[in-house]
Amino acid sequence: MIKFVLMVNRQGQTRLSRYYQPVELSRRAQLEADVVRCCLSRRREQCSFVEYKDFKLIYRQYAALFIVVAVTENENELSVYELVHNFVEVLDKYFSRVIMFNLDRVHIILDEMIQNGHVVETNRNRVLAPLSALDKLADG
Amino acid sequence: MALKIVKGSIDRMFDKNLQDLVRGIRNHKEDEAKYISTCIDEIKQELKQDNIAVKANAVCKLTYLQMLGYDVSWAAFNIVEVMSSSKFTYKRIGYLAASQCFHESTDVIMLTTNQIRKDLSSPNQYDTGVALTGLSCFVTPDLARDLANDIMTLMSHTKPYIRKKAVLIMYKVFLKYPESLRPAFPRLKEKLEDPDPGVQSAAVNVICELARRNPKNYLSLAPLFFKLMTSSTNNWVLIKIIKLFGALTPLEPRLGKKLIEPLTNLIHSTSAMSLLYECVNTVIAVLISLSSGMPNHSASIQLCVQKLRILIEDSDQNLKYLGLLAMSKILKTHPKSVQSHKDLILQCLDDKDESIRLRALDLLYGMVSKKNLMEIVKKLMLHVDKAEGTTYRDELLTKIIDICSQSNYQYITNFEWYISILVELTRLEGTRHGHLIASQMLDVAIRVKAIRGFAVAQMATLLDNAHLLTGNMQRMGICEVLYAAAWICGEFSEHLENPMQTLEAMLRPKVATLPGHIQAVYVQNAAKLFATVLKSQEGNTNSTAAQETSQLMIDRLPVFVQSANLEVQERASCILQLVKYIQKLQQKDVEVAEEVSALFAGELNPVAPKAQKKVPVPEGLDLDAWINEPPSESESEDEQPKAIFAKEEPKHSRPRHTEVDEKELARRREARKQEQANNPFYIKASPSSQKVYQEAPGVEHIPVVHIDLSVPLKVPGLPMSDQYVKLEEERRQKERAEKKKKEKKKRKEKRSSRGRKHDSGPESEEDITPAHMVDIVTEEMPENALPSDDDDKDPNDPHKALDIDLDNLMESAGRRPLADTEKLPVRSHRAAEAPKSPVEDGEAASQEPKKKSSKEKREKKDKDRERKKSKEEKKKKKKHKHGEKEEDLMGGQVDEPVGQADEPVVQSEETNEVAEVAATSTSAEVLAAAAAAAAAAEADPVPEAASATAPESEPDEPKDAEVDETKSSKHKKKKQKKEKEEKEKKKKKKHHHHHHHSDGGGEDSVQNGTVEEEEPLPPMSNYCLLAENSYIKMMMEDADEVYDIQGNLQDGSQVVVSIIFENKCDSFLKSMEFNVLDSLNSKLQRPEGSGPHDGLTVPFQLPPGVSNEARFVFTVQSIVMQQKLKGTLTFIVKNEDSSTHEKLDFKLHFTCTSYLITTPCYSDAFAKLLESGDLKGSSVRLEGVDMPFHHLLARICFHHHFSVVERIDSCASMYSRSIQGHHVCLLVKTSGQTVSIDAKCDEPTLLGNVLDEIKQTFSQC
Asked: How many C-beta atoms surround the C-beta of residue B738 within 10 A?
């Protein structure tokens, strides 16, 4: 299962974090710093999977944005790797502008796709259904 | 003007949304902390507003700040407020904040239970969705217990969107509240075949996750999963299912054989790499679990290896990495298949990506054989030379050593070669692993006796060239090797060719620059060498040479005597004095060599690593006992850092400075902690993180002096390992040639006799004989070593609790069905849907026509009669069996109304029997009998009824409206009722083999004073019918141990009664109100603010045929007396066209027995209790009890909640405890048909009543 999802920029600042297993707030900063350092220090030609402590990190870079997913030992790396791309595609479809300012919506999308550390939905339209319902609500 | 400014700022304050906050933080890079603190102040202001929109906005911003690492737990209550907003726009903000900020210890979570329940049942699917998502993040054991039922209901929601979320969150619920697993499992299983692929996938996810930890409980699902696997086209689902099979096959090898084919098909057909990878992984796992030597599976392995090769050859680094990873799994069982791809793996050592190189190294570790070890190591040595960056080089070095030393040097055929490899490794620049090389040298030299001569020579050369090693500071790591070299030369000095030269090398002044522990070894071993040298020199009768040697020692040792290192100094001065004394003796021409070498005589043997552990603990030594007073608890106040995911070693706290006042120190520490906690950028130190940092590739940029190794640093006299490779090759060829010769000879011989059978195939492992006589000295173990203790599983693993047998749930016959105690509980007055067992389902489906309401009155009339009857009947019942068909026909219509009233008794009796058997006996045999009885009670009636009631039901029809009933239990009831009447009339006695323990089983229900007793639930149940009419049936569970365990023990005056309401008609039942007339002693707990006569609304409605459970809490002042409470249930029966008010009266009966909790008691504690003298005695005599003694005991245990303390022949002591902590002790004796019970209790009234109840129990049988 998925332990957490992080979105960080190239400077290593966390842009979004979602934990599926509780981690104390005080430990998060350290964990995130560690994890980000692990991933950012890797070169382009290196593979996207890193073994970190007792779990695995899977990361993908999109321009200045890194998406890091931590998964347990038994998770299929490639499927999570694809999931990240799927997630980014959904974000792409929904947001025309910078996503930074709409973090709550990013959260909604993420929650529609991953719940409880498991993939719930990968269909783009279905993922976005609650969001469009919400937008209609706001417009109306 | 001023007003305008104020107004403007207020506006701005309201306007600042998340976007502004993010922007603002970006624009205040220099004073971010200050900016954020003003923002937080603003947010605090906003939270004070009444406007929910403002609050939601504030909470939204807080969520962002929390993510940045600021503590926002102070706003928890505001988050709850926003969560409970009715507008979805705000609600989701609240839930998002909660899911980010709340955790198990957040106390406001308690407040959310009802809100979440409301949202879960909201008509808007997005409300439900957001609540489920949120819940998955912050569910606590309490929430899990309280909401398990609601979530379970949602698993069958009409919208797949809700279903899939509900299914997924059940996993979290199981983890937090393992008791929910069994009741929820049938429905979860059902979801595997949900029409919606999303729901299906969710169910697969949950079951896979559960099965991963406790696979054996899920084996029975294998056929279902197999079906899914062959039918599903969803790769996500397929991956999960295949993963699950990977976990199941080790337990069921037959499954593995079945899997191979579909998996290989998938491997051939799929284009999705992730699926391919998963299939390959599982095929490997399957083949591992299958017994080896299955010839037809080599094709599968070949296929996997081929596919993996394609992955490894791919330009995508990710695939390459995973290919290597999977390859290493194959390696474990099928090394030969992988070894043929050695070239490919060696190629990977040149990859740009370090993680790929490391994976390749891992693979190499497993690929070595006697045949290729030298070759592989040679390649690795080349890589060591080329490698950039110390991290990778060190990794290579450790791998080389690992590869060579694995399984006790299994693959090394030539230890000379290995020693020279080690010596070559000492030339590595700046490695940190000097100690590793050193320990290898020591290990080999000590354990391989044959190699000592060679090793000593090599070490002597090393010592001679020691200036190379200590040349600069960067080599400090490698100088550890000298430790080994000096010790080996000293210990095995008899092998030295030129001990004098080595002695001289060891006493060079430069040695003093080495680390202290190495110097100490130098000094000590110089002495050993000295002894050897003396011996050889004295033999030559050249006394001057010996004296010169002594002089050398005396000249050189003072440097060490002045050493700052204590050990060096001590050893040096001892040895110096010794040598001086020897010199004196030498001057007197005394022969000393023998005595000096006697100082160092004796051989050192290696000690096994586990030796210490295996030393048996001497008798009388308690290792757990404190030697000194244990330290006070306050010392552990330093918080131990909690592990993030894995356990970490706790950090050792520093010793305290006692000069500073304790309090002051604590205050300062507190302040510092506070400060650090509030500063998200303060990185808390932990040992592991530091290590990680050091090892991170980021340190690669540290400049490393690179030496051009094209001109290798060849030390004269040091061997090159390469030459051994050649030598070895030659040697092996020779051997082979010889062998062939021999074989040819043999073959010739054989051909003459048996013909050609043996073909000399390629050289096999066993053919290679080691170059040296390798006698690896085995490690020493202490005498009478203990057998090794295995490491246990982590007891804290939450999944341990989920190791629950689930198979039995589905099929009732012969297995353990859901017991009522396993129902998902509902706290106090809340509603819950009783999970249905298959039997119940059938029951719920039955409907009774409305016109049958007259039955109610009839029942009331019959009440008294019926009670008497039931007693009578019970007496007989014990020896009776279900009636036969013709009996039914005879008795069936004679006594219809009475029979109707009586029938349930029979059934409850039966189930009680079964329950009793199960409860009182631990033997598996009896349990099986109980299960069989259960099967008889629940399952048999179907076929029987089919034959028995078919002729009978037709005449019934006009008379009795119940004809519509199709459920089996009803048939059964009828049958039993008729049967019983039959018995009454005919007194026909037939023994039922299931029933021999069952004498007088139904008392409980009688004591409870119920109108009608019926037990339609599966056996082992404590439920009995409370009241029933044509609309509704109420079943009450005895207020007994189940609840007391659940926490009423602490709160000794509460009794929880759970009641199942079952809708028996085909109309909708709503607005149910439950009310009880309170007595002085017992009161129904009502919500605050309601009057003492107000009823409680039953928090659910009942559609036709549905049953649900609610719990009611009563406070009881005194428990020494029996209690009876009258109550009424009012409800509205809603039809399509009309709705009518109806009511149902009932009487709740709390016996004294029901206040007792079965509590085990040990005989010594029991004896003490009796001796204490606080207990008052009483006794009772039962006459004419005709049953075996153990049945009698079982009966007391079951009906009166006692436990047997001790039993000797026909005498037994028993114990129980009341919910208010009264002890009740019984001494039961039997002789013939007389049973005497002597009882003691600290509350005489209670005891009297309990004894009365016991008496009543037996008077009925």
From this structure: 10
